[in-house]
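Entry 14. Structure prediction run on the chain below.
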Amino acid sequence: MKRFTDEQILQANRVSLLDLSRKLGYQPVKKYSNYHIPDHGGLYISDERNAFYCGAQESGGGPIQFLMKFENMSWLESMKYLVDDDQVVLHTRKENWDSPKEEKHIEFKLPEKSQTSYKRLFAYLLKARGLDKDIVMDLVNQKKIYESHPHHNVVFVGYDENGVPHQAFQRGTVTGLSFKGEVTGSNKDYCFKMNGNGDSATVYEAAIDAISHASILKHFGMSWKKEHRIALGGLSDRPLNNFLKLHPEIKNITFALDNDYDAKFSNGSPAPNWGQRAAEKFAEKYSKLGYTTSIEKPMAKDWNDELMNIHLSEAEVQKMNSKSQNDPETFGNHDELEDAM
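Output returned:
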């Protein structure tokens, strides 16, 4: 009996490759009629054909081949990833597509650091994102976070085992503008990490999620320094694979990925809960490799929303307590309440 039916294979090949690439952490940029993914050997996606072409490899294909070539999945793993959910976006394919020319490799270089105080960085991370001040200061001192010049973006840096930066991700700090993106030339085998000293690692999609989760634990007086925290920068486990090779002491892995309960495809149709589907897939995969795995799901969309909800709830309680002290009649006369009981 075949593992997958012909209908399932057709369904997998009709999953939106453009949406899939974005969810995996790639950053396709519109270029004429196609989408270009920088620093991947001339990698282009045609949304009309739902196909990719890579000039460096002189090859292309659909969603299945994309996962096999760029996410190192087997054919069976690719199929399982693509057809686990019934919600897919269908495409009308066009057969004629000129292969773009190969691009040259771009060397990785960190954005220039701001030479002034990190005023915008602290305002964004502490006020807009509600992160713990001590944790943020510690990461700044470790040079894992800094403010760039001249755009004042927050830069999250991924280092190798020798302290050499290989990857970085930027987030804008201007209110009302949602700029974010990986620094050109980044090596996807590396990512932002918060180092621990135990045999456990927790995996997140974004650096802010990792810091938010640590902030929540610290806020409630719980231990947060022992475990390693890894931000994948999407839903590819390449950084995790590399981390585990360098840290053979790790025995326990918790997948704390986003809760995409209201995810939508680019055309507005319902999409799978990408984060939790990936968490389940990774938990199964690494369990088979001998690790003890678990899943921790935020009640909100992600861990920063969870943290902000905690701050909001506590502020509301504080406001109510303050109002009751200043205006006892709001809650009735205490003597009358006692008599009624």
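The CA atoms of residues 88 and 315 lie 41 Å apart.
Filed with the rest of this week's runs.
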